[in-house]
Specification:
Helix 5 crosses helix 6 (163-174), helix 7 (183-210) packs antiparallel against helix 8 (218-248) and helix 8 packs across helix 9. It is built from 10 helices and 2 strands. The chain is mostly helical. The two termini are 33 Å apart.
Amino acid sequence: MAFSSGAAGGGAAKARTSPKSIKFLFGGLAGMGATVFVQPLDLVKNRMQLSGEGARTKEYKTSFHAVGSILRKEGVRGIYTGLSAGLLRQATYTTTRLGIYTILFEKFTKQDGTPPNFFMKALIGMTAGAVGAFVGTPAEVALIRMTADGRLPVDQRRGYKNVFNALIRITTEEGVTTLWRGCIPTMARAVVVNAAQLASYSQSKQFLMDTGYFRDDILCHFCASMISGLVTTAASMPVDIAKTRIQNMRMIDGKPEYKNGLDVLVKVVRKEGFFSLWKGFTPYYARLGPHTVLTFIFLEQMNKYYKKFFLDA
């Protein structure tokens, strides 16, 4: 996310206090810690996006219906299906994105310490997001497939035991390139999310402060984040559903279900309706805010204890 990326950039000036490797490590671990709490929302979002695929009857009417159905049929453990893949995605995507962002941020910071302007920050954020998404695509493919498995009849399930079993089986059964299936829409989503978050957050914050009811404090930041999350979710969901469908698709008579992301969008609109591009909106939006906040909390705590035990000792 752009906000956590921004945190990395803001911390670049304090690079003397802790090594870059520690910053990247803590960034990845913070993202993984947050994922433990929001994984159920990811699972519900993926199930909603696959519900009614190919003009079939929708399995879930709403996100709440999906949660109830999953808990009833698969139990509490079922709602955490794919957690290992979610953790690996954060370990690869978040760490890479923070690393690229910090390196580029420092590269474009002037000799006198002046940070890059808004446009350059946005460009750095989008570049870091796209590279991170490419590196994290194999874990993303495993996550989509593992979270989708429970909705299928028993004889059609892939039955991956964990993320590493999934990666090995995908490689041996379908070829190593399948691990990067859907990497274009995955990278496109990362670019859209970073761009939408950066632009909408600053605009929302300015709008709230202009009303005269808000000051530049935590309440204003929270409200601006919620508005930004709404804009980001609306902008990125069509790309996200294309990514989900492509990464979960099977070969039919030797041919893939979808040719590319655009083919997914056309088929979804034609067979399921225009607004089906925003399936899973509620869990996607509900996941965005808490994941960012929890990532910040974990990151701050790790930095605090690292400073206490290793720098101030």
